Amino acid sequence: MPRQGTQVHRFLLVVLIVLLGACGLTATRRKLEMSLAASAFLAAKKAKAQTLAPGLFRKSEFYFLKAKASYRKKFFNKAKQYALLSIKYAEQAEFVSVRKATLENL
Questions:
Q1: pLDDT of residue 7
Q2: In this predicted structure, what is the pLDDT of residue 87?
């Protein structure tokens, strides 16, 4: 007949396993942020930001690649943070490059 202490340990082990497994289910995938980051990055690239605003473009690319890597590793909260930073720098790079291109044509 098993002792009561081992039954309690087994029960606690099962509860711990269930709780740890449920943690992965609570994190939501940040598909929208990743999609917006990709769109912003491509828009900056289309505006030739890599030549007209290289510093901002590189920052955007750096954070975009970090977001993709974090997303692949299922670190969705980190991926969201990096995606938002990528969007920020991509939009700034696009704005600067469009402004410079416009001023060159005047």
A1: 75
A2: 97
